[in-house]
Amino acid sequence: MSAPRTAIGQAMELPPYAEWLGCSIDWVEDAPQLVMPFGEHVMGWPGLLQGGAIAGLLEVAGIAALTHRLAGEGTARIKPVTITTNYLRTGRDQHPTRAVGVILRLGQRTANVEAVAWQEDRDQPIATARLNYRILRG
Amino acid sequence: MGFDMERFVAMGGLGGGHGQQLGIAYRAHGEDWAELALPYDARLIGDPVSGVIASGPIVAMMDMATSVAVWLKRGAFEAHVTLDLRVDYLRPAVPERTVIGRGECYRLTRSIAFVRGIAHDGDPDDPVAHVAGTFIGMAA
Lengths: 138, 140
Prior knowledge:
Chain A is of the alpha+beta class.
């Protein structure tokens, strides 16, 4: 797997929490796709993903999408304002979980992102999230 | 025979491996509410510039606190799944401080539980986050 890179080729640094979750980045069609292997640290009920870990992964996917898009702007900061997670299917231990953030709008002050998480089949998401951010430009 | 909070905590019911490894601990409970604590941990930082922890661990704690609130109000454990959970981030938690999560079940139907809660880092009147969500029972 290649090291995380932003649009302009800089290394994309994920926050410590993303590392704690065990996330890595796969670049798919020049967009960051987060991959989170199953493990004890993301398990709720035996053999099942904990909802908070899924929400955390979606949050990281949202931040990664915005960091990628904002890479050319230098000092922009990204602060979450509201996050609404919808749980569609049970996350299980057989597969890693993947997630991407799709930027619906990136404005001067705010950004609206939809993030999707899935396991085997992207068309069968296990969870989605609407993430609204405050963008602070340097 | 109600829902036995102490026994549930002793059995490791608070979020399995995820809750344990986040260090989430039981604090208090009442008839329809439960309070948990998430200690500060530098490994959970979401914004390296400020040292503020990521929202994921707070979501995990609030999911657990509100889940337990449902079982307390129902008076029994009944498996359920989260339908949705909205979190409003009112302000960043202060680095180094433990975050307290208080979840409440304010309405229970046969199959759906409506929950809300706040997370704060010392003063419940100055919360860091507000949550609202729903669970659906597996037996329904």
